[in-house]
Structure formats: structure tokens, C-alpha cells
Amino acid sequence: MRHHVILRVVAKLSIPFIFLFALYVQFHGDFGPGGGFQAGVIFGAAFILYALIFGLDNALKVAPINVVIFFIAAGLLLFAGVGVAALLYGGKFLDYGVLASDFVAGQHLGILLVELGVGITVAAVMIAVFFTFADRGR
Amino acid sequence: MDFFLGHYNYWIFIFLMMLGFYVVVARGNLVKKIIGLNIFQASVFLLYISIGKVLGGTAPIIIDGYGTDPVIYSNPLPHVLILTAIVVGVATTALGLSLVVRINEAYGTIEEDEISEMDREP
Amino acid sequence: MIAAHYPALQIALPLIAAPLCVLLRRGTWAWLVTVAVSWTALYVSVQLLLQVLASGPISYELGGWAAPWGIEYRVDSVNAFVLLIVSGISAISAPYAYKSVIHEIPEHQHYLFYSAYLLCLTGLLGIVITGDAFNVFVFLEISSLSSYVLISLGKDRKAVTAAYQYLVMGTIGATFFLIGVGLIYAMTGTLNMADIANRIDQVQNTRTVLAAFAFITVGLGLKLALFPLHLWLPNAYAYAPSVVTVFLAATATKVAIYTMLRFVFTLFGTDFALDVTLLAEFLMALALVGVFAASITAIFQNNIKRMLAYSSVAQVGYMMLGVSFFSVTGLTGGIVHLFNHAMMKGALFMALGAIFFRVGSVHIDRIRGLGKQMPFTMFAFVIGGLSLIGIPLTVGFISKWYLILAALERGWWPIAGLVLLSSLLAIVYVWRVVEVAYFRDPPTNHPKVTEAPLSLLVPTWILVLANIYFGVDTTLTVGVADTAAKVLLGLGQ
Q: Do residues C101 and C246 touch, judged by C-beta distance below 8 A?
């Protein structure tokens, strides 16, 4: 894809906005439609687009496979960690209400962190799936 | 006639389900089987989403001053459930395809009958 | 304080440990985490069982959301017993895993193996503990996806095709289950199991509920390898790594059977199930045909692992036979066989894993003369085999005793006769192995083998001794199974 100028230019222009949109979907998820799953997939898609246009090697320089795998685990740990934190604050598992001084703020904080964990894991999984398939045939 | 038109969402579901199921059973190509499995799962997604629709209902987002009074919302729960099921479906597809890649590396083919032929000889 | 959170910890601990293994990136550390978590899970499930027996069912509201709306974890004597089976088998097979995994799986995959193992454990425990119908599907898929991965790690390339086959059939089963849950939700408007059980009476006679029942039983039938739907099982168990076979053979089908019991008896209700035309007769016929067909196929297998896998299909038949009586004694037999079969198949597959560790094959020709070379392993296999046949003083006898009692209680003595007859088939295939191992000379063209290492022998013998202990002292197993059967039939807590 190196010689396709139009593709390269369009990709270069649009990838930052795709990332930005992913972040919007991620952090606006507790007010409107959105959330970790969708944001993660959009984020992963932007990354895969980058890898398609600029080559797998460049993409691997940005995010080596080990780093991606690390983020898969880290996102899941963040999710479960919020649940355990709720336990330690005296609530039920995943009871976000106790995380902050009042119930609603706690719910906001909890769902934000949990969705962040989901988003990280989903994005990392999408990227890892693409990398491992793309890497296999070489 | 009403029975057919009034339940058109179920007919679509049944058609897609049987289509996907047929592909899984009848095709020998392992990738095609995965695609059949995908259609099969997608049909269930449609079933869930269609039973969540409330006639005249709007998107279940609370916004002041929007919608008729009292506001009727579509049931959001099936959508949430199916989001989970879609993720499961993606994971299944990814795993299934990666198994196909490994089968291709080990056997040099992804045709079911050729693989069972190769497995038969000890 | 912590005791109130045991239901959540039961699931959360292995769930947290799985990504932790990925972060540690060292096989040995991941193994240590796995062992620690498995034993903690066992401790938690023992505590849960004691709590349930002392003070009745426990309900835990995840996230603090009240029951019909939020997800509820609900532990009663039925699933506390199954939790004990799953976590107990995991606690015994985790120490066993260390050497076996080093021997069978490439080193760079060790930590991923333990991660998948823990996810599988999470899924299995989750299916059992949850009181939410959709949550069952989610955990079912967690355990299934990780078990496909675990099976595909087998050394033989057939392991990959077996995993693929299991993936296709397992996904169809899970999707059928999902359709059934969707139809129930459409009719009752709830996903909480207790709530469904209350509301389903009003819509019991609709075709939709009947269709939901059909989808769920067929879907779970695929998962539990009920006779004509068992085709994925033999290859999956035969070519998976030894530890995986031990773990899955002793837990996965049991959990599916538990789910079936839960849905048929608690959600739809015994009366509904009995109203379904010929359901009991149909299940009984399938169970008996399954017992005989699978036992006869097992006799002709030369790969011993595959032989035992077919035997597993037959044992599932016994469990379903107990269920199909729809009586307290029959259900007690079925549920106690869940436990007992986990003990005997765990012991047998562990002994086979030890043989594979030393010999590098489980083909019947390669175990010639092993009775002298690996006396402890082979003797464990013999006792496990006796238990499989149902000799008195072993757990196998207890299960068959209750099945026969249940048949006689109904006056169906031909069924009792068939159960006895099928035990003869088990004698044939167990004897084939014993005869080759003890009465043939070791092959001369292969290097001499020695006894398996202690880390493999000790877990094997723990299960073997459990076979004998629970065959003599049945207060725990039969007592809990009896209570569980009564709970399922709605005759008490």
C-alpha cells in the first residue's frame, strides 16, 4: 500500500479523528449511547487501518505484540480491580455506589473505570487478533 | 395472512437461522462453516433485538422535553444482552479462524473430507 | 465480614488471577498463582456448602442491585455441591499440572495455558453459582472458549481438528440455549431464575415456552454430550493435553448436567417437564442407548484415552438415567454420580497422564508390562477401573446402587437389569487394559520406563483414595445429593 498516495493521505488525515471519536464514545458512554465495547472496537479499527496502510512493521513498532497482550490483561484487571475496590469499601462486588462520598458520584466513577477497562481490553484484543493473523503468513 | 406478516421478524429470524445452520452442516470448507456459524448467531441477535422493540417507543435515553407524554421507551435490556452475545460471537469467530489457520498449517488443507481422509491412515 | 462475600469471591478470584498470569509471563509463577487460587476456591466452596447446609440458600446481589433487576448469585444445596466438585477437581489437578504441562506444552505458552485454565475454571464456577439465566450463557461461553483453546494445545495435530469440531458443536449448543433464554424472556419479562420460576406458571401452556424448553434441552444436551449429540467429546478428550482431559472430563459435562437440572426442575418445574409428552421416556431411552452404544464403542478403542472418553459418554448416560426417573431416589443417584464420576474419571485420566508422561503414548500396545514398571500408576488405574465398573467399596457402586433402587422403586426391573448388564461391558474394557498391563511382557524395542514422579502420583492417589473413602462413607455425598434432589423436586430446602 506504500505507493497509494490517496490512501496514505486520507488515512493520515482520518486516523487521528477516529482515535478522537473512540475516546468520545468511551467517555461519553455514561451519558449517551457508547461505552467500552464500541470505543474499543473503533480504537482498534483505527490502529488496524494504520497497519493496513503503513505496513505491519510500522504498526508493530508503535505497539509490539507483548505490549498489546499486556493491555489485554491490564484492562481486565482494571475491571476486576474496581469490583474488589468496592468490596474493600464495604459494598457488594462491583457496587460502585460506595466508591465516592455520595452514591451517584460513586456510580459515575465506577462505571467510568469499568468501561475504561473494557475499552482497553477490547481495543487490545482487536489489535492482537489482527496482528497474530497478519503475522502468521509471513 | 396476518399470521405471516404480523410476525415477519420471526420469519426472518427462522430463515437466517436455518440458512446458517444449513451452511454449518452441509459445507465441507472449514472457513465456510465459521461463516455459517456467524449467520446462525446473527439470526439470534435479530430475534433478541426485535423482541425488545416497543411499538411507538423511542430510544431509551432520558432527555428532558423529548418524546410524547408519557414517554414510551423501547426495552433496552435485549440490546445490552445482545451486545454481550456479539462480543462472544466475535471471540468465537476469531478463535475458530485461528484454529482453521493452524489446521491449514498442520494438514495443508481446510476441506473437511480431506482432513478426515488424512486422519484415517494411522 | 469476608464470609458474606464468598459467592462473589468464588468467581472473582480466578477471574482476577487469569490476567495476572498473563502479566507474570513466567510459567512457574503462573502455576503458583493457579494452585493458590484453586485451593482458595476450594476453601470458599467448602465454606459455602457449610453455610448452605447450616442456614439455607444464600443470595448475593452483584453491584448491590436488588434481585429481579440485578444479577443475583444464588447458592443452594444443589449448586454448592457442584461448586465443591468443580473447585475440588481443580485444586487436585492444579498441582498435577506442573510437570505434565512442562512435558506436553511448549514453554512460551505455559503462562497462557494457566490463564486459559483459570478462565475455564471461572466460567464453570460461574455457570453453577449464578441465578441469572443470561449470565449462564455468558459463563458458558467463557468456559467453552477457554476449553477450545486448552484442547487445541494437545501435541497431536488431531487436537486442533477436535477443538474445531467442539467449537462448532459447542457454539451451536450455546446458541440454541441463547434462543431458549430469549424466548423465556419474551414470555416472562425477566431473566432471574427464581423470578422466572414464579412467572412461568401463567404462560406455561403456550407454544413459545414449549419451544424455549426444546431449545434449552437440546442446546444443553449438546454441551453435556447426551448420547446422539456426543460426537465432539471422544476426540476432544482423547487429544487434549493430559491435565485438560482430567479437568474437563471431571467438571465440564457435570456443570452442563447441573444446568440442565436447574432449568428443567427449578425454572420450568417438574410438573411442566412431566407434562411434556414422553420427555421422561425419551430421556431414559437416550440414556440407556447411550450407555450401551458408548460402552460397546469403548471396548473397540485402541487409544486408552479415547476409550475412557467413550466411557464418559456412557457415564453421562447413567446420570441422565437417574434424572429421567423424576423421583428423589433417581435424582439422588444422578447427582451423586456427578460427584462419583468426577472422582473416578479424574483418577483414571490422571493415571493415564502419568503413563503418557513416561511412555509418551497411551496406545494399548505401548502399555504392555507397565504393571511391573509403573506399579503405583497402574494400580491406581486398576482401582479407578474397579470404581468405573461399580465394585462394592468404591464410589461407582454407590451410584449404581441408587440407580437400581430408583428403578426397582418404580417397579421397572428390566431397567435395573440393563444397568447391571452395562456394568459387564465396563468390565470388558477395563479388563482389556489390565490384562495388557499385567500379563504381557514389556516391549523390547522401547526403552525401559520407570515410575511416574511424585507430583503426578500424589494427586492421582488422592483421587483414588477418595474413590474408596466416599465408597465407604457416603454421609457427605449421598446426604447432600439427597437434599439437593429434594430441593430440585420442590420437596424442601
A: no
Does C443 fall in a domain?
yes
Nearest to B96 among C138, C158, C167 (CB): C167
Judge: C171–B47 Cβ closer than 8 Å, yes or no. Answer: no
Task: Write the ipTM.
Answer: 0.93
Among C324, C331, C279, C257, smallest CA distance to C491 is for C331
Number of structural domains, chain C? 1
End-to-end alpha-carbon separation of chain A, Å?
Answer: 16
Nearest chain B Cα distance for residue A6, angstroms: 31
CB pairs under 8 A between A and C: 51
Residue of C nearest to A96 (CA): C63
Q: Residue C303 falls within a domain, yes or no?
A: yes
Q: Which residues of C touch A91 (CB under 8 A)?
A: 64
- C36 and C472 in contact (C-beta within 8 Å)? no
Q: Is C388 exposed, middle or buried (0-12, 13-18, 19+ CB in 10 A)?
A: buried
Which CATH architecture is the domain B2-60+68-120 placed in? Orthogonal Bundle (1.10)
Torsion of CA C294, C296, C299, C302, to 10 degrees: -60
C-alpha cell at C292: 450401551
Tens-digit pLDDT profile for residues C25-64: 888 999 999 999 999 999 999 999 999 988 888 999 888 8
Q: Quick check: C403 and C322 in contact, CB under 8 A?
A: yes
Q: Is residue C204 part of a domain?
A: no
- In C417-487, DSSP assigns E strands to none
Assess if residue C456 is contained within a domain. Answer: yes
